[in-house]
Amino acid sequence: MSVTPESDTSAAHEGQPDQAARPGPLAGVKVLELGTLIAGPFAARFLGEFGADVIKIEDPKGGDPLRKWRKLYPEVGGTSLWWAVQARNKKSVTINLKAEEGKEIVRRLAKEADIVVENFRPGLLEKLGLGYDVLSAENPGLVMVRLSGYGQTGPYRDRPGFGAIAESMGGLRHITGYPDLPPPRIGISIGDSIAALHGVIGALMALHHKQVNGGKGQVVDVALYEAVFNMMESVVPEYGVYGMVRERTGASLPGIVPSNTYPCRDGSIVIGGNSDPIFKRLMVAIERDDLANDAALAHNDGRVPRTQEIDGAIAAWLATRTIDEALAVLNAADVPAGRIYSVADMFTDPQYMARQMIQRFKWQDGQDITLPSVTPKLSETPGETRWLGPELGEHTDEVLQSLGYDADHIASLHAQQIV
Predict the structure, then answer these.
(1) Alpha carbons within 13 A on the beta-carbon side of 189
(2) Domain extent listing, the chain
(3) 201 Cβ contact partners less than 8 Å away, ≥ 6 residues apart
(4) What is the pLDDT of residues 309-352, one digit of tens each?
(5) In the CATH hierarchy, which fold is given to the domain comprising 259-345?
(6) What's the pLDDT score for residue 363?
(7) Are the beta carbons of 337 and 330 closer than 8 angstroms?
(8) Where are the alpha helices (DSSP H) in 275-390?
(9) Helices 323-332 and 276-285, interaxial angle, to 10°?
């Protein structure tokens, strides 16, 4: 079901009218998704948003569990609103992977695919007879993205691993929150999403190697904990050289001063004044010329020992001002600062509106639904929402026909509950 963004005079804006006519940068790339929930499906979603033809394999009995996660529409017995975006631009094909003929359909689809994305526990595809060795024997150029908690090797490979565990093992949870409280979780499944993006990057690099360097297909092995670990900036060399273990520091960014969340009269704002020229402008803006002109504070290594003094000066200036008053001064001084947005703020913010980051569509029954726009923005081959997350098995017959199955054979597969 193709969709067209609806015009709206508030926060949800229609997309560029000529975008739908342009092929995406991944047009012609065929992706087979063998995954559920978050990491694998998010990786395939990303590829589909930029033009890849994504076929999502689902269990005929209920499909991807994400269909029932978070808020449903209708609220009783409906489908997840998250599904509309996580499965957009994908074709849903239901296949019973325990049936031999079902496996054969997957092998035929993989033979035509450029990329297979899967996030089962290591070894499951091999047990099903759908491992990379089998699929690549028929398709040597195949790129398989394998997302799992701990990777395809190592002593932990067979353990169940979700994003929350990866965020803990990868180091993110240890440095998040306040030192006198247990580590909190971030309010989204950030570990899964970071791993998914690593999978997309790996897939595109593998395609480039095959198409430009004359290489063959390969496996992109993404461990969720390693994707999180890859984002941990300087914690490894700091420990290796100095034995320093970075700890939780609340809202501040340790060793980079000033960068913190500060209270105003009516809420809090975030200020990033940690580059040398910005620091000086910030101190002038808050009427602390003494600190602006202090030679000892001219560079970050001099500011770190005086973090408390600097944060105290900023907090004292903000204490008598509203968020709007403070931001007016800081923006005029060219100091990075901003309010902490809720989703309600996003729907009315002029920057979100100007960039068309929230778009309104019609769902299957005519209900208005707002989705995040596609990111990043490409000037010549932008991504787009071609259709919303499909009904379970919506494209099964269409895809089987494309493989050469006739109507009688397809009816037989349905009757045997293979599809």
Answers:
(1) 20
(2) 19-231+356-415, 259-345
(3) none
(4) 999 999 999 999 999 999 999 999 999 999 999 999 999 999 99
(5) formyl-coa transferase, domain 3 (3.30.1540)
(6) 83
(7) yes
(8) 276-285, 289-292, 300-303, 307-318, 323-332, 343-348, 350-354
(9) 130
Stretch 226-253: mean pLDDT: 94
Q: What is the CA radius of gyration of the chain?
A: 25
The answer to whether the CB of 75 falls within 8 A of the CB of 87 is: no
Q: Characterize the bridge pairing of strands 267-272 and 259-264.
A: antiparallel
Task: Give residue 407's pLDDT band: very low, low, confident or very high (50, 70, 90).
Answer: very high
Q: Is pTM, for the whole model, over 0.85?
A: yes
Instruction: For residue 381, give both structure tokens.
Output: 């081959």
Query: pLDDT at position 403, please?
Result: 96
- For CA atoms 172, 177, 179, 181, give the dihedral sign: negative
Residue owning tokens 């092998």 = 107
* Preceding peptide of 376 cis, ω within 30°: yes
Is 334 considered catalytic here?
A: no
Candidates 378, 348, 72; CA nearest to 358 is 348
Among candidate residues 64, 133, 192, 311, the one labeled active-site is: 192
Reported confidence tier of residue 269, pLDDT bands at 50, 70, 90: very high
Q: What stretches of 248-345 adopt beta strand conformation (E)?
A: 259-264, 267-272, 337-339
Place of tokens 């491992």: 131
Length of the chain: 419
23 band by pLDDT with thresholds 50, 70 and 90? confident
- C-alpha span between 171 and 382 (Å, rounded): 35
- For 277-294, write each residue's pLDDT tens digit: 999 999 999 999 999 999
In this structure, what token pair is assigned to residue 149? 């908690």
Nearest to 338 by CA among 417, 259, 237, 257: 259
CB 330 within 8 A of CB 271: yes
pLDDT in tens, 173-224: 999 999 999 999 999 999 999 999 999 999 999 999 999 999 999 999 999 9
Peptide bond into 5 cis (omega under 30): no
Q: How far apart are CA 8 and CA 360, in angstroms?
A: 8
Burial letters 47-62, b for 16+ CB under 10 A, else e: bbbbbbbbbbbbebee
Q: Which CATH class is domain 19-231+356-415?
A: alpha beta
